[in-house]
Amino acid sequence: MIYIGADHAGFALKEKLKAYLQSKGLHVKDFGAWKLNPTDDYPDYAIPVAELVAKTGEKGILVCGSAEGVCIAANKVKGVRAIAAKDAITAKMSREHNDANVLCLAGGQTKKKMNDLGIPFPKAKQIVDVWLKTAFSNEERHRRRLKKIEAFERAT
Length: 156
What we know:
By secondary structure, the chain is α/β, with parallel strands linked by helices. The protein is built from six helices and seven strands; from the N terminus they run E-H-E-H-E-H-E-H-E-E-E-H-H.
């Protein structure tokens, strides 16, 4: 299962990615937006996706204009390691070294046009494919670092 969500600025890319993932036989649960609403807010989608990722251990994909807003919101949920990937190398490293469980992408859609922040769909597919197929390395140094983050989360 992959949980997915986006605000208005990520709506178009989310819809394309959802169809792409489903065409590959993956199960996708969409948390919205389900229609383009220029006044919606990214936390309304990012937080529910992040909560289920933390609860179930599944992965999530979030899209907003820059990827940064959904990333910040998702990372407020204990157990979530969300990253904003701009390329396949970042996506791969986030899985191998950080065991990232939420991928955030820049949709760049604002006021019915794409801005310079948006990731073109072919590149977004590449990032998603690499991120989904890359496993956590499970190297001791990476496990140690993640345990430190988990200890901090338990203490707060």
